[in-house]
Design a protein that fits this description.
- The protein is of the alpha+beta class.
- It has a domain of about 130 residues: Lamin Tail domain (Immunoglobulin-like, Sandwich).
- The chain contains one helix and twelve strands.
- The strands form three sheets. Strands 8-7-2-1-11-12 form a six-stranded mixed beta sheet, with no helix packed on it. A four-stranded antiparallel beta sheet has the order 5-4-9-10, with no helix packed on it.
- β11 and β12 form a beta hairpin.
- The longest helix has 21 residues.
- The N terminus is likely disordered.
Amino acid sequence: MSPSHAPMSSTPSPHASMAPRSTTWSTTRPTSRTPPAGHGRRLLTLALCLAAASCGSDGGGDGGTGQEGIVINEICAKAIADASFNPTGSDWIELYNGSGATVDLSGAALIDSKSKPFVDALPLPAGTKVPANGYLIVYFNHDGVGVPNIAKGLGAGEALTLYGADGGLLDQVDWKDGDAPEGSSWGRSPDGGSLTRTFDKPTPSAPNP
């Protein structure tokens, strides 16, 4: 007897009718990162620095007293009386301003030392000014003769320091006995230069040779 065959089922396979899967995309935005610690402070510091620089530039200054550039240009430690500008024969020094603007030396001070501090220096009178590209004679005596006047004399050989109103060093020089003999002077050659020498004939308020 021939074996019986079961009739083939016409029911479709469950896998034959499977539809392709749809892909779903996420629309969730990434979360923002927290700035590192101190970030806000750095931004604030930067803003303050920029503001300070902007304010400082309005004045066109250099952050100092505006007295920078004034130098001790000439020393006359054993002066001879001169009717034209020094009738009493007072010791004197010449300050030189090589800039193109008048400099107000209010608050500046002088002392006959290279080591004594600003607090020990003798102040110049308020309103003392050195003209642009010009000179100022400062008299040294105990008689109050000459304007401006520092109440002391100059030695044949010593040092002199000029401090600004803020206590900063403006200039400093020293000369030895014999550098400025009687009737002569000692100073920078040329005006404002770094070289110094003795002048047989003083040049108050005039260019040094």
